[in-house]
Amino acid sequence: MNLSNTKESKLHFGMPTLIELNSLKENIELCKKLKLNFIELNMNIPLFSVLGIEDENNFELKKIIEELNFYQKEFGIYFTIHLDENFNFADSNIYIKNAYLKTLKAVIKNSKKINCPIINMHLNKGIYFTLPTEKVFLFEKYKEEFNNSLEEFIKFCNCEISDSNIFISIENTDGWTDFEKKSIEKILMNKNFSLTFDIGHSQAIGNIDQDFILKNKSKLKHFHIHDGTLPNAATKQFGKNHLQLGTGNINLKEKIYLAKETNSRCVIETKTVESLVESVKWITKSLDTF
Prior knowledge:
By secondary structure, this protein is an alpha/beta fold. The chain has one domain (6-289): Divalent-metal-dependent TIM barrel enzymes (TIM Barrel), CATH 3.20.20.150. The chain contains 12 helices and 10 strands. The strands form 2 sheets. The protein has an 8-stranded parallel β-barrel, surrounded by 6 helices. Strands 5-6 form a two-stranded antiparallel ribbon. The two termini are 13 Å apart.
């Protein structure tokens, strides 16, 4: 069964950019071989960091935009973007914060050029001080400064995205604090923002963010799907994630049903070519049940 045939699957499946592959062309070739719908371009990889540049005369930027549009037209695939994981709209240094916002402005502008529907991002926890009995996060300690940056970020994104069909999607990672959840709720009140449900990250920390995500189910637009294991209660170690589908203990069918219900696209976020190939085989065998 062809995963890219949306009439059959009713879901869009994609792949991450893989560190084993050395070029955009190699990623494209694998995407087509596996009959996937899209590729998520990771801006931590130097090849795609150029998407954070606004200079239209930059040769590397012009080249990558032309290639992405060519491959979309030639092969019928599309692209989402994973923002640099260091992105921090609330950095206390105004020059650093403005550099991040300037980068995001360029990413949004370049996303419009390639018809990218999703810009995925992590909510940066910021720096914390470790005391004898607790960790004190500076964003929570200095709430007023953080909230001012948060409001600035929301207004900035709403202005830059305007009425285009791009969503900035907040991904769960290692567990949101109550302070972070309140911040995300403020963000999600705006039409240009959505949620990414990373089911492997969730499993590895005991699904502590899952109730919050389901409470905001209407804002789900994106999934990162990979298998994982639950944390070890005895050793207090996180579980494993980014495992090949079918090799962990996540209820994958339940999660993919949720993706279908919310009309979300799914990045099969395993980290090697081999595990991606085997994961696609697992989905293809299971597709009729979704």
